[in-house]
Each structure stands twice: as C-alpha cells, then as structure tokens.
Amino acid sequence: MSELFDAVDALVASRAALPPPAERKRLRSAHGLTIDEVATALKVRRATVSGWESGKTEPRPPERDAYARLLDKLAELYPAAQADTAPPAPDAAVPATFTAAPAPAEARTLSTGEASEAAVMTATENTQTPVLVAAAPAAAPRPARTTRTSSTSRRPGAKKAAPAGTPASGSDPRFENGPLAVVDVEDDGTVLAYCTGGLVLDVPAKSIPALVDWTLREAKLGAPKLAGPGKDADPLIVLTESALERYGLPVTLTEEEKHAGRIPEGHKVIKQLARAEWKLTKRGFGPWARIYRPATGSERACVQLCIPSWNALDTRHWGEAGQLPPAELARVLGVYASRVMTPRGSTAVTGLELMTALHPPTRATAPDENGKRTGEHNPGSLGKDAIAPMNWPPCEVPDGHPVLKDLPRFHVRGPAEKLFEEAYDWARPMTDAECTLRHLVGIDVNMAFAAGANGLNVGLSEATHVKAPAFDPKLPGSWLVDLSHVDLSRVKVGKEWVELDGSLLPSPFTPKGERPTGPAWYATPTVAYAAELGYEVRPIEAWVRYENGRYLDGWYNRLRDAYLATMADLGVDADLAPADFLAAMDGYKARDPELAIVTTAIKATVKGGLGKLRERPRGEGWKPGEPWRALSRPTWRPDIRAAVISRTRMNLHRKIVKHAAFTGQYPIAILSDCVVYAANGESPLDFLPYREGKPLPGGFKLGINPGLVKHEGTQSVLWGEEVRERFNAPELNLARYIKDGTVTDVDNGE
Questions:
Q1: What is the DSSP letter of 173?
Q2: Region at 724 (left for phi over 0; alpha for psi -120 to 50; beta for the rest)
Q3: pTM exceeds 0.85
Q4: Which helix (H) or strand (E) holds 181?
Q5: Strands (DSSP E) along 177-306, which ranges?
Q6: With contact defined as beta carbons under 8 Å apart, do 684 and 446 qualify?
Q7: Which of 36, 132, 220, 679 has the fewest CB atoms within 10 Å, measured from its CB?
C-alpha cells in the first residue's frame, strides 16, 4: 500500500502548482538568491531557471517538485504584500560589495557620517522614500522610475538603519559606496549624491572645490585597480543641471565653448579651484573634467567630473542616459563601471584607458638593500614612452603624419605606399536566381572587432624594416606583397580545394572587395589568410615587430564578460538554442531600456577604443607634417588597429567562403560586420545550414557570444530592387539599410 501512496504522491508532485513567472522571480529576489544559486541547488543549468522565470519553459519532474517546494517556502517568508520592500537579487556577474542583510521596514537618506554604517538604498515601487537594504553595487536590479526626490520624502522621523555588516569578500572598504555618484539638488536646496545600488548621500559641499574635497575625504567613492601594478579608479561625480546651477556652472555651453570643449579659463569656478590649489588637466574644465593635486607617494588626489548637459554622454553611444533621473543614471553608469570600468571620458577614451588599466606601463621592482622600490617596464605592456614620430613606418601612419612631411602637398598614396586595412563596404547586383527569391535577410556579427582582437598577436615595440623576408604568420607587422594572383574561384577550405563562383564573392584583401592589381601593404592576418586559401605569398619587404604578445586578450575578456552579463540580464543567455535565441533577441531592449543603454555603450567602447589607437588631429591649430597631441601616447598604435580590423575582415570572409562552399549561397552586400543574403524565408534559419540544431563548422552560428551572429533585419527582394532603381545605383549597399528599410539618400559610403 505504501508503494501506491508513493506513486500517488509522485503523481501529485508532477503537477505541483507553481506561481506565475514574475512571482517566481520576485520570491527568488526577495531572499537574495541568484539564478546560479537556484540552478546549482536544483542541479539544472542557469538558462533553465531563467526560462522558468521568464515563462518560456515550465519545470518538469523531478525538478518541478523541488522548485515548487522552494517557492512555497519563500512565499511563506515573503508574502506578496511585502513585494515592494524586498531586496533585489545580487547579480552573479558582479561581485557584491556588501553582505546581504534583511531590509528594515523604514529607512532614510543617509548623511555622510552614517553612510559607513549602511549598505545600499533602493527606492520602493510605490513611494519616493529610500529604503535601506543590502544589495550589489552594480545596480543591475532596476530602481523605481521616479522623478527627483522631493524634500518631503526624506522622512526625518524614520528609524536609524542597522549596520549592514562587514564588506563582502573581495570588496574594498575605501570604496564602499561604489565607483560614482550623481549629484542633484532638491527643490529646497538640499544636495544629494545618488550612488550605485540606490544609496543616497547628503552632500554638505557648497562649492566645486568643497565638492572635490568631500568626494575624496568622506564620500568613499572609487574602484580598485584592475591589474596588480595599476592604479585605483578615481571617483566619478556626475553633475545634473540643478547641481550645475547650485555650483555656479552654466547648464549648457555656448557655441564657442562647445567648439573649444571647455569653459573659459577666467570662469569663477576655475578661479575657485586655483585658490584651493586644485589643478585641471590640459583639456580644461569641459564635459569630462579632471580635477587633481599632484600625487604624494602612492596617494592620488583626483576626481573626474561628468556633465551630461554639456554632451558628456553622447547620444550615439549612451542613448537617453543623460535625460534619466539621478537614481536611474547612477544605475546605468554603475553597471557599466562595475563591468567595464569607471568612465574616463567618452566610450572611446574609456576603451583606450581600459587597455592601459589592464596592462599598466610600469611595475615596482623588488626592494633594494635599503628597502626602496623603483619603477620598471611592465612586460606585456606598451611601456610608458610613445614611439617617436620619426620612427614610425611610413606605410602605417595616416596622411599628414610628421614622417610623411617631405611628400608633395597633394600626393595621394596608393596601396603600395599605405597600409589600408578597413572594414568591408561591398555590394553587388543580384543574380536572376536571387531575384526569384522573396526576401533579403541581414545577419550581424556580435562584437565583431572584439572577437577579432581575441588571441591576436600584436607588436609591443617599434618595428624593424626587412627586405625580401620569408612570411611568418606569427610575426605581427606590415608586409608589402602581391596578392593579385589569389583566385577565389578555386580556394582551399580546410584541407580540400573547392570550386566557387569568384565573381559573386568580395576579395578579402580590400575593403571595397575589389581584387588587388599589384603589390600592396597588408597586416599579418591578411597575408596569413591568403596562404590559408592555398596560395603562395612572397613579401617584397616588411616592417615587423619581434617583441610581441597578446596585449588585447584581457581587454577582450572584460568587454565580452560585460556584454554577456548585461545581455543575460535582458533575457538573452549565451547557451540558447537557435530559435530560442532569435525569440529572446526580439524586443530585448524594451525589457529594460536602461540596461539596453549599457549594451550599446559596451559595444561603442570596443569600436571607439580601437579607433583611438589611430586618433587623428583634432583642430588645435594643427598643420600637416606637424605632430599632434595623440602621438605622445604609448597607446597611439595604428598598427594594432590595422591588425584587429584585418583579422576581423578575414574572420568574416572565412565564414562566407565556408557558407558558399557548403550551400552555394553568396552574399549580396556586406557592411562592416553585417552580411545580407537572399532567401525564401524571413529568418536567418531559412538559409543558415543548421542540422539537428548544429551549425556548419566554421560557418555562421546564431548566438550572443562575440563572433556569433544575430538577425539584423529582413526586407523583400522587391524592396532591394526598387531602392537600387530609384537611386540608379545597382550596387547600392543594402546592408546599410536592411535593419528598417529606410533609405534617405544616395549611398556615399560614409
């Protein structure tokens, strides 16, 4: 009889009642559990639990019974009526700064002195009153969307918060309030600093010098260094429009100030800083001002200011972040700071600074007999000194560089004089067979340039000039070689020779896809790919770098992890099946528009950081042949930028060739990392050769990881033909418009 009872119990458990998906997530968050902890306890994958919470899938026995038991116990602890005061779940991808503690029923805005006792404050869903809870500093949990807190919401009669306990493992008590704060002013003149995780601090400072001093002495803002020999991140203070008014700064810049990128040197705030013996960097007091005093020993005294209304947060990269309320802006910047680094300027500047933060130029030596340490070159870094302008290979530098000053004024360098590794901008007319198909489907490579940097060997020092060298695919450099003999109609794919229609393929050796006509300069990955296709390469000369290494690996890993963690927060996990991935990507930005801003900023950090490696003159009275400011940086390295772009283009071409060899399908247009194919269906699955859920080895694969592809957009073949006919442009690059189909002007390649 007991066996029958057991069978009945098992049958009931197999249909155990479960709360709705949103309630499942609330209960887990209320207890401070991460998805990973639940997955480990139930012995399932993280994506499985994520699917249960999103409602995409339902648990099955035997996990269903255990999951129902967990939720029942949590429901007893956290009834639905307490949902508004439950603490958010820490993000597994971001280390928690504070040990979790139960949330008291009431709390208040913290003064500076009380902040050291508190954990993190988050706004409730139905009130503007801050509630003290323990939470992760990355601020991945979304705070309530509110307007600026009014003075009446501070509830001075609330109970004093209990101490949150000691900082969690790996945290730094010097920076217990997070990497940054958004400073705002309430209607009654009270100045508040909104930190990550919802923490709000009272700001007593009445001037910019006092604000800088308060930030360094009392605010406990900043972030630990990313590498052993590196430096801690300086605290970042974001000033809202009301804060600018409070501290005597203009809310917006005049046209003249915008052009100069700063307020005048005679501005009263700059005079206040000078009287207090604070200094500004050479870029002055602009959208990203740095205020400092010379370091004494190992102690730095530096604060970074970010002023959104002065266009510090470019809408191309930060979307509407600059218009967000203070708490939400702190959340967006806090997630970025914890996963990438504290912003040091534009996303491009931050991308470049991240390289240096992960590979500091110097390190301390072992102590001498007197116990004194000195600085020495840090192996694997680019060092502390820039390459002298006249020591650059002429083929690697842009026009106007000092090493080219003896060229005639209007001389145009050709492929045999200039290394020209750029992203694809190629298109061709459709064939008759392609015109009979119904759709044009665009696929886009995720973080293509980051993937191109992964594992790439780059030079770490000056180049050496060699004549008639034997090509070495492991040696980074620039090679003058004739690749015009490479015939795409017959190439090696793996170990086998295959026949292709070369007229339907772009050349891998030029950005426009044109076949080279003679010797040209190429980066190492391009020449290596020519050899991989089965053709002999004989360089005429080269500039090679014998000191080299995988300088960008740590940079890639950090940006990849930041992107994947944020996309997972948006419901797009890295291990989804192809159809599930496409479904998860559909409308993912609308699930949390603020985290969507972070993903855009991360991608801009990749492209901008690589672009900064070859920064051009930016006004300042520069004339061709003269040095410009960027040349004085060790990170001015156009050769590294060229190598990354070269490898990215080769990676894409390799996939295109494998796809053509296996399916007989050829691309119609390519723009950077977007490729357009003709197909009978609207989905990438209608032309990508998946077999039992597995992609073509070495070909395109759907997924969110860097190097994998996502759906960019679908338009009809008739749309493509009509657009090309309207503009009388049979080779109009349709990849530029495939996302939404809007074409506003003739394609000019920009």
A1: G
A2: alpha
A3: no
A4: strand 180-185
A5: 180-185, 191-195, 200-202, 236-239, 279-280, 290-296, 299-306
A6: no
A7: 36
